[in-house]
Structures are given as structure tokens and as C-alpha cells.
Amino acid sequence: MATTAKLTKGLTRRRFAVGVVLAAMATKLPGQTRPHRIVSTAPSITEALFALDLGSEVIGVSRFCDFPPEVLKLPKVGTYIKPDPEAIARLAPDLVILQGNPTELANRLNALHISFAEVPHGTLKDVFTGIQIIAKAAGYPERAEPLVSHIQGGLDAIQSKA
Fold this sequence. Notes:
alpha/beta
């Protein structure tokens, strides 16, 4: 009995719930190869996910995500500069897409055994690379090239008119 008291001392409902969530996140279903619960930490990532027809898999977004309109109803996980690891963990994602190199967040996600992918940002080439990384991480690499080609075609059309 004393051992049980030691183990449960300081165990709050919140800590218990976090433990249950972490255990659920660590459990991977047999045959599950594609994530079905994706968190986006930046507006450009969210828009890329929806453009890749993965919007139904998105379960959380940054506070600044506002397009497409469906994301306004989704839980917020902090800002691009300061994503909230606890808010992300509470959503029990299969995959988190990060922009840039938020080392502290990457370390926290690793500690929580949450898969993540990092996409570059800053240049047009980075946008195309990010789309490819997102599509691959989500299990649909074949969706990247048509989207990149579509965007590039639109840019080419604008340039030819200029």
C-alpha cells in the first residue's frame, strides 16, 4: 500500500490525462503508414496541406492560420514563433509539420515520441521543397509534383504577361 501511495502522490487528473494521451500516441496501429492526425505550425504549411487534399487530416493549426475558412474552427497550437508543445501533445497527432528549425520544439516532440517533419521557408524554392516534404511525410509523395507544377505554371503565366 505504501508503494501505491508513493506512486500516486502528486498524481493529478491533468498528469494522469497527459500520461494516457502519451501512451495513446506511442501506440501505432498495425499497418498504419500514413498519418491521420496532422498538426500545422504555420499558415503556409496549413495551406499546403489543404492544397495537397489533406485538409481532413489536419487537427490543429497555428493561431495565425485563417485559410481556408475550415481552419478557423480547429484548435490552435500557439504561434509560428512559439508553438505550444503541450497544446500539440493534447491533440495526439501522428505528425507535426514545423517551419524553420525550432530546436526546442523538435526536442520536446522527440521526447514525447511525436513524429514531425521540418520544412524550409524564405524562398520560392523553399515553398516547392516544403510541399514535397509535406506530401512525403503525409504518405502521399505523388501529390507534390502536380501541385508544384500547377503553382509554377501560374507563375510562368504571370511572368509571360509582364
